[in-house]
Each structure stands twice: as structure tokens, then as C-alpha cells.
Amino acid sequence: MKKSVKIGLAAAIALPILAVAAIPLFVDANTFRPIIESRLTAALSRKVTLGDLSLSLRTGALVANDLSIAEDPKFGQTPFFTAKQLRIGVEMKPLILHKQLIVRSFEVDAPQIHLIRAEDGTWNFSTLSHVAAPQNTAKPAALPDLPVGLVTIQDGNATIETLPSQKNPQVYDHLNVKLENVSLAKAFPFTVSASLPGDGKVAVSGTVGPINPQDAASTSFDAHVTIEHLDPVVAGYVDPADGISMIGGLDAHIVSDGINVTSDGKVHAEHLILLKGGKAAPYPLDVSYQIRHSLQGNSGEVSDLALQTGKVAIHIKGTYQIAANVPVFDLKLLAQSVPIDGLQALMPAVGVKLPNNATLKGGTLSANFAIKGSPTDNVIVGSYEIRNTKLVGYDLGSKIVGIAAMGGIKTGNTVDITISRANMRATKAGSQTTNIYSVLPALGESTGSGTVSPSGQLNFHLISKVTSAKGLNKVGVNILTSLNNSSASKKPSNAQGIPINITGTAENPVITADVGSVMKGNATAIKNKTTGVFNKIFGKKKKDSSSTTPKK
To answer: What are the E-state strand segments in 21-169?
Structure first.
């Protein structure tokens, strides 16, 4: 090959390479910075600032070293969105030959996003892409659209706070976002994933848009949400003072028309605690729900919230209002003849405690309660009824101090409960139980009332007709029959039974039958009735008053 041909071939290969390599020397990328900032500022209705721009021929992008999107002045001066680098995918030929900027994509690395919710429910991103409504015309305001084929965020960090500021903001780390065929004027698909504190993960996918030009937070969307290994306390969703905790997963469908948000789904909860003072449920539970929320009223309706374990469900319905970022609710809890066997896992979670090592077997529970207030300050009022169950693992008869001296009540390790019902009122100051009525075949009928302190201390006072008890031996029956059958007109106190006081805690109750006070307080009334009984019991002979010593 001739030397001239070789030189020509080399030049043919080298010149295009040199020409491409030299492009950045002749194209000043920073000349496009004002127009990019202007377009983004107009589209987002926020001041957008870019750092130094460079041209990357390898990726076909303009690269900005810094990106900053200003905050709504009502929420402070700290930027709403910042990133160390922004890559703007562009059409290279129009850019180089005609200085024409055609954007294909935006790619943001490791941004910091600051989301804030005010007391009235408005968000700091509500004014993004905001356009003032035109006056004297029915035509809606139009957005300065900025169509982009692809927008991605990689390894971002989003912090959600409320005003006034709280100690534990919600943090979403390793945030990845993908928006396709982005347009402010029409709906487009999106996917979002992030990590939560405590090894939780969240994923959201669906469609969003068109962007509401008056309030971006009221933009329509249709999304499917999944969450794995959620700890709501660690994640900042629930205040630790509320006493609610769990490790859970969520599978939900959420739809917004910009006015109302409807959501239905299921929470799979492990180690669930629903009330302050409760213990973690020993088995997983599922909580299915249906909620409708008004964005304008910042309120909603719980169509159904069902606490499910196996085939058992307890339903909650009602309304709520969010004020100063705190929900205030008005709910109704209803359980109708729910099998108790299926409630064993749920009872500890809602604060129901039994004596140590004891369980309930068989029977049903019916309950009707009104729940009003906030998570930390609420009032629960209603009634419950338990039928045909057994308390297994607790020898009630041996625990009743006082009656044992008269022969005792024999219940063994299992106590049958024919019925137990009462009215109850619970607040953060403790609970009050009234109109107690229970029938335990081994103990008889009991009525009364009592309280439970916030620390769990019991103070109950019952009157028991223990003479009908099947577990009471013959000696006790004879004595207590005399006490119970004394005339009320002659007996100033406790004419209908034996006082039984219950103190201690639900796990370790102290049960005392005050037989002594009944006998003392009613001594005159029962003297004649009990004399014959004691004589028969102890075999005491009567003295013959007619016998005399013969005179000598």
C-alpha cells in the first residue's frame, strides 16, 4: 500500500475521533445553564439552581455538579431538594450543530429530599408546579409542560417532618424513583422503592397525574403499595407513647381523585400490641381495612377495620379527624358471639390479661364499645359478655382466702364460667367496671363493680351467693346458708351474699372472702339461725334446765 494511501486512511479514521473529542472544547455547556434553570423553574414554580455544567459525549448528557430546588417560603429557607449531581440526557446533534436543547431524561444521584407537613394538613410540595388561577374566566390554569421521556432518582434520602417539629421524623433511605413519559399535563407511570429504619422496605407502583396546578398534593393517582418488615415506631409512624407496636407487612391499593383518597388492604402483624399496657400477641394476626379520606377536610371514614385471627374477626367502624397532625377518632367496636378459642392471640394485644399460666377454652365473646379520642388520650365505653367458657390452669377455689376456713370451694384446675358480663369505661386514668354479673357453677352467682389502675392494680368488690356453689362442701353450705338466708330487715349489710374483694393484678390476683365481717355485722340477725347449725356440726348437747338436785 502506498504511503499516501496509508496516511489518508489514518486521517479518515483519526479526524472523526479528534473532531468528537474536540467538541467539548468548542461547545461551552454552561451556555445552556440559564435556559435549563429557566425551564425547570417555570415547570416547578420554584427557583432551580444548577452548578457548573459539562458535556459528556460518552453518556450523551449535560452534567451539573450541583442541583438545588428552593423551598416554599412558608416552610422555611432550607432547600426542598438538593443533589450533588444531575445528568441531563439531551439530543446531541441538535445541541452541537444548532445549539438546540432537546431534553430526553433527568438522572439524579443521591439527592436529599425534605418533606414537611403543616398542622392544617398542607405539604411543602403542594405548591410545586403551582399556577395561579386566572381571574374572570372559567378556563382552568395551564401548566408550562416539560415532557421528558425518563426521570430517575438513585440512592436518595427523603425525610418527612411535621410542624410543629417532632423528635422522630420519618426517614426513607436508598430511595429509588423511576418516572416514564413524564408530563405535567397527563398521567404517567411510576415506581418507587426505599428502605425503612429497622430493615423495612417499601415499594410503590402505579400511575400519577395530570399534576394539579393548584395543589400538587391533590394530584390524582392509582397505586399499589407493599411494605415488608415494618416497625411503625422505629419508622416514625407511631409515637412510642401510644403503646402501639408490631412488626408488619402491608399490601394495599390506594386511589386518589384529588379530592378523596380511598384505600383498602391488609396488614400482616407479628408481635402486635394495640393498646398501651398490652402484651405482644403470641401469634401473627391480619388486619384488613377499608378507609376513605377527604384531602380537603383532612378527615375520613373507616368503613371496616377487621382484626382477624384464623376465622375470627372483630370489626371496627367509624370516623376520624386529623388536627395538628394528631388523629381524633370516633369508632365503634363490635364482636358478636366470637369464638374465644380464636381470640387467644388477640387478647394480650388489646390489654386483656389472665392469671399466670391460665387460658380460656371454648365459649364465645360478644362486645360493643365506643372508642373516642386520640391515640394517647381516649375513652372506651361499652359492655361485654362471655358465655360457656372455661378458665384452665387456675385453681380458683384454693385462692379464695376466707371460705377455705369453712371447708373451701373445690374447683380444681379448671373453672367453668356459665356467663360473665359487665359494663366498662376505660381512660388513661384506668378503667371502671360496673354491673358485673357472673355465674360460676363452683362459686355461685356474683355481682359488683371495681376498678383497674393505670399500673394494673385491681380493686373489685363483689357479692357472691356462694351457697349455690356446686364446689362448696357440706359444712360450708350449712354455715353460708344461714348467712344468706338471714332476714334483710334484721341484717344491715350484705343480706344477699358474701363480700369478695379482689386486689393485686390480673396476673396475680388476691381474692378474699370476707366471711368474718358478715358474721360480725349481722351477729344478732343470724344468732338463732346459726346456733342450731353449729350444734349439729360440732355435736354440742343442750343443758337440761328442768333438772334439780334433790334436797336432803
So the answer is: 48-50, 53-56, 61-64, 67-69, 81-83, 85-90, 103-109, 112-117, 148-162
